[in-house]
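Look over this one:
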Amino acid sequence: MTSMGTKCISCLKYLVMRQKCLCLLLVFTVYSLVNPVFFRFLEGLIPMEKCHLPKGFKLRPGTHADNYLDYWTRTDVQTCTQWKAPIIWDGTFNATVYDEMYKKQNIVIGLTVFAVGNYLDMFLERFLVSADEHFMPGFPVIYYVFVDDLAKLRRISARLSNRGILREVAVEKQRRWQDNSMFRMKLIKELIETRVNNEANYIFCFDVDQHFSGRFGTEALGDSVALLHSWFYRRPRFMYPYETNPLSAASLQSRGDFYYHAAVFGGTWQNVRRLTEACHRGIVEDKQRKVEARWHDESHLNKYFWLNKPTKILSPEYCWDPFIGWRTDIHIFRLQWASKQYEASRQLD
């Protein structure tokens, strides 16, 4: 066979193979569009960036527990950021090292949670009882619980152990559930200024429609702590639902680093105060301009963390939605979303 004939055959084989690959890709695309479970499975195969830090890198001076993080034990996920902040995954930390270090410091951790309207009846008891078992085990915790019905909260508090101190904070229901969500930034800021600054070293803020199911411990502590959103951590950046309205103070277009979930954020009380103050200020500016960010306080939180990089990021195992399905990189569920029953939970009347 002539060389020309051989080239023609090779060319035909290439075209056939290319056509098969395109057809296969089309089949996968169409199937994923009509089958969201399959689409989420494919999402889990999208590779993440790898940690660029050299072996033996020390994040902090001295003998801080963060210096013992093993960024390289998890090659399947991203374990550090471009600004050298760690991303905490199962297998990257030694819980004993963290607990021993913080016990020497005699720290107190605060927790805020809002339960207004039907959210109180549907979610608060399970949240608090599970937090009592799994949140910062072995350390003193103060629960700052914002409710619109103190009698119901007192019935729930009877089921808690003596490990945590419960602080009741009475609030009024807002006209819309969106306003309840956004209004918490103002209330948390005021709480920090009046109580938390005298009672706790660190503060974590949680949504109530979730429950703890595994250790959520001192490895999560940091100066400024953000959480990777479980629905977006594997997606490319152009799919992140950042605020795009240029009139909104939360406008980010596509400039962010990650998409952070407002269901969990924390840090030292000083840093959380700065975060909540900035988010509240942005929400007020939007109201004055008669605009509202797409994802409300979460949009403003993402803007804040783009301008003020978090010093520690929690992986999605610290707030996982079981509806996503099985993922090879999620080894443990530390905090899980409750089943979203929006018609019932968001009904305020």
In short: The mean pLDDT is 88. The first strand starts at residue 87 and ends at 88.
